[in-house]
Amino acid sequence: MDFGVIIGSASIQKYDYLRLPATDTWGLLMRKDSPLAALDSIGPKNLRDIPLLCSRQALAGNELSGWLRDDSEKLNIVATYNLIYNAVLMVEEGIGYALCLDKQMNTTSSSGLCFKPLEPRVEAHLNIVWKKYQVFSKAAEKFLEKMRQEI
Q1: Long-range contacts of the stretch 32-39 (C-beta < 8 A, 24+)
Q2: Within 10 A of 71 (CB to CB), how many other CB atoms are there?
């Protein structure tokens, strides 16, 4: 593997990297029949007393601690997930609400799910990374050259 994409505040010091000109937005995934589905956005107080599914990486990296402020201790985290697919299945079954990044699941009109962004907005930066002192194949060199031109 020549390249990877790291989302959020993961440690990138041991890699060379390029910051991509895109971000992902943090929010809450829920069933469309949820009372919170009527809201335009989700604030920290909306998370109190609801069953939450949280990404293990986000919890370990304190990705949302600044946004939550003092409310983090009041969260009812019922499960953690490593793959958003698993969280989607649990949300569909009514187990809880998933704190997650947007555009990683189906929330179209044919889906029973919806996504509401956090307010104030919380974004995760995207970085393409590779090992320091990496010896690239010709194809990987061309890819990196093209990425640098585009970014």
Answers
A1: 32/111, 32/112, 32/113, 32/114, 33/112, 34/97, 36/97, 36/116, 37/114, 37/116, 39/116
A2: 16
Q: Where are the beta strands (DSSP E) in the chain?
A: 4-7, 15-31, 51-55, 76-81, 97-101, 113-117, 123-131
What type of residue is 127? Answer: N
Rounded CA-CA distance 49/128 in Å is 37
Question: Distance (Å, rounded) from C-alpha 102 to C-alpha 81?
Answer: 16
Q: Can you name the residues that pair with 52 across neighbouring β-strands?
A: 77, 97
**pLDDT, mean of residues 48-53:** 94
The model's pTM: 0.85
In percent, how much of the chain has pLDDT > 70? 96
Asked if residues 51 and 141 have their Cβ atoms less than 8 Å apart, the reply is: no
Average the pLDDT over 42-68 and give the result. Answer: 86
d(CA 10, CA 127): 10
